[in-house]
Design a protein that fits this description.
The protein is built from 6 helices and 4 strands; from the N terminus they run ββααααβααβ. With about 160 residues, it is mainly alpha-helical. Bound molecules: zinc ion.
Length: about 160
Amino acid sequence: MKYCSNCGEKTGGKAKFCGYCGYNIASSEEGKGTTEFVIASSSKRLLNLLVDYTVGALGGGFLVGLLLATIGLVSGNETDEFWTFVGCIVILAYYVSFEVIWGKSLGKMVTKTRVLMQDGSKPTLKAIIIRSLSRFIPFDAFSFFGNKPVGWHDSISKTVVVED
Ligand SMILES: [Zn+2]
């Protein structure tokens, strides 16, 4: 078992990044000196979130409007739960499609960051789905308000966000 030399948490055998604090483990290993990846900062992660949620809200609003126009649901019968569900599906579909196809959401395109597995490989579909679902954990966004640039949706899915 390896331990992060920055925070002391256990790390996976092949992990290049600490899943707890985001520390670039590979860079500190003697002889390897890997600096190929730089973890994205907390401020970039917050900017990603703002951009993605703005896009999600606009895109979601657009989709909902389209849905209403299409099926003529203007009577107001629908419940709040229904719209919450629609919102969640929109957010999920948005992140999964962008991060699977391009390895990044629109926010990450703006901040020039991308998603990788902790071992530095391309993220798997499963990891992206877990990552996107983990965003619905209440207060996930607040998991960034600390010194570490790692959110729960990163650590749970064993992914990291790095600079391009
Ligand atoms: Zn660490």
